[in-house]
Specification:
By secondary structure, this protein is an all-alpha fold. It contains two helices and no strands.
Length: 164
């Protein structure tokens, strides 16, 4: 039972093939498996990092949305306050205008009263010398006649005694 040449050739080919496969597997285990494992671990770590970043970004988006809602509410509150301030300012401005108009009206009335007093005083000052002159002339006429002068003095003394 010796093997013929063809069988031996096939046997050696199988042995060579198995040695080659063993050698390839050995090289893969020694050099490539560690590198492939490291690359797979790196890829997995990268995937974990990316998932963490995605989760962080989702959380950041939620925070930004919440902040936007708060800002929107704050803006609405500020708009309401601004409208209230403007309304109040307009009211105060109108009130101020009305007060100034009242003051102007009172001042105008006061000026009219003062003008009236001044006109009366000016009229009195203009008329007083004329009245004095006329009275002097009448008194001189009355005092030229002794009887009329005596009657005037008597009336004057009687009036003074009565208190009027």
């Amino acid at each position: 039972m010796f093997l013929d040449e063809a069988s031996v050739a096939v046997l050696f080919r199988l042995i060579n093939f198995s040695v080659l496969v063993f050698f390839i597997v050995y090289l893969c285990k020694k050099y490539l498996i560690d590198t492939v494992k490291k690359q797979i671990a790196d890829k997995q770590q990268t995937m974990i990092d990316l998932r963490d970043q995605a989760n962080t970004l989702v959380e950041d988006i939620r925070v930004v949305d919440k902040v936007m809602q708060q800002d929107t509410q704050l803006c609405q509150a500020l708009k309401t306050r601004v409208v209230a301030w403007r309304t109040r300012d307009e009211y105060l401005a109108q009130e101020s205008i009305l007060k100034r108009q009242e003051q102007a009206k009172k001042l105008a009335e006061h000026v009219l009263i003062q003008t009236s007093y001044l006109q009366r005083r000016n009229a009195y000052e203009r008329m007083l010398p004329q009245v004095i002159d006329q009275t002097r002339e009448k008194l001189e006429q009355k005092f030229e006649d002794d009887a009329l002068a005596q009657e005037f003095i008597t009336q004057l003394i009687t009036s003074m005694q009565k208190g009027g």
